[in-house]
Amino acid sequence: MELKRKYIARLGALLCLLIIVGVVLSLGGAHANHTDATRARTVAVVVATRQPLENSLRLSGEFRPYQEVDVHAKVAGYIQHIYVDVGDKVKEGQTLAILEIPELNAQVAAAQADIQRSKDAIQRAEHDLKRTESSYSAAHAAYTRLKQAASARPGLIAEQELDDSLAHDQEAEAQVGSAQAALAEARSQLGVAQANQQRYAALEAYARITAPFAGVVTKRDADTGALIQAGTSSNTQAMPVVRLAQYSRLRLIVPVPESAVPGLRLGERIDVRVPSLNRTFEGQIARFSDALSDETRTMHTEIDVENPDGTLVNGMYAETELELKQPQNTLTIPIQALQRNGDTGEVMLVRPDATVEPRTVKVGAEGNDRVEIVAGLSEGDRVIVGNLREFQAGEKVEPKLIGEAGQSGGDQF
Predict the structure, then answer these.
(1) Model pTM?
(2) Residues of the chain with pLDDT > 90: what percent?
């Protein structure tokens, strides 16, 4: 019994010791947890600095021919010869096809005959005028002599004879006027005949269909022997001969958003990148519509790109970057350091005592990766980058300066 009591007493003492050790360990763990909770966490910060704000806009579009037309015939006729096919390169003024127009040839011949007839009529009228002028000269001279004789010796010439001579003189003068009018009419008829001949000759020249500009034939709609209607006919009747496109210069058509319209400048040189070729070409802002689309709020803008060797192809995809207006020496911070709300925003400012202060700022222009701060911050202020909603006002932090690319840029502030 005595041994049993001693064993129970030792066992009780051991249990008390274990309880005391557990309590001590528990108190030590609570102290460690309290130390961890009060330790400041490291945060990434950047400094508000003054610098140019890079602002560019990437746009994409497709190449289109500089010029593209359906070549029609001016007059109706049959295709006598067609000299080009799809893919052929032609020069300006080169003959593409010749029409056969028999009735037009007859009209040209008739116009030539009218000209010759008018010339003969003029020659005849000139001869008549000379004859009447000679008759008038003789009649006028006879009347003048009779009148002079009657004045010198009154009664020598009978009054009837003098009157008959005067009448013959006046008649001859009137015939001269009539011959002059006939000659003028014949000359007018010649002018009309020549105008008709020129008109028919011009129509005959239209039988030779030529290229209005240098380019490439992209479509052929007619073959030899096909009947071609005049291009002035309705669209349902008139069939083009070929379609011609100019590829030596191309238009890159891009939609420019409303916010970037003020930065557009005609004649500005711009780089155009073609991903399929992995090449960059030089372009020029050549024209824009000067009006916004009601649906997309963008403006139709065209960039001309020279293509003398035909490397670029119609419909090829390309992209470009427009360098917009860049504010100089303006206070900026990275976009990731701002929670934007229209023209204002909120940043998490790290004060000199390493505590967090939510700060409302006024925002200006926005660049590719930075934003302009108009008011609310000063140059040199430190702001937190990323996960801004995780911080509370007054929270103690350990700021770590980073570069714009997100890499560590130095030691703790």
Answers:
(1) 0.56
(2) 22
Domain ranges of the chain: 42-55+328-412, 103-205, 246-323
Collapsing DSSP to helix, strand or coil, 79 comes out as strand
CATH architecture of 246-323: Beta Barrel (2.40)
Gap between the Cα atoms of 328 and 51, Å rounded = 6
pLDDT tens digit string along 199-218? 888 888 888 999 999 999 99
Inform me whether the pLDDT recorded for 390 exceeds 60: yes
Q: How many CB atoms lie within 10 A of CB 43?
A: 22
Residues in the chain, total: 413
Domain 103-205: give its CATH code. Answer: 1.10.287.620
Q: Residues 274-288, buried b or exposed e (16+ Cβ, 10 A)?
A: beeeeeebebebbeb
- Could you say which of 2.40.420.20, 2.30.30.40, 3.40.50.720, 3.30.365.10 is the CATH number of the domain covering 42-55+328-412? 2.40.420.20
> In Å, what is the CA distance from 377 to each residue of 102, 117, 331, 345, 389?
87, 97, 8, 12, 19
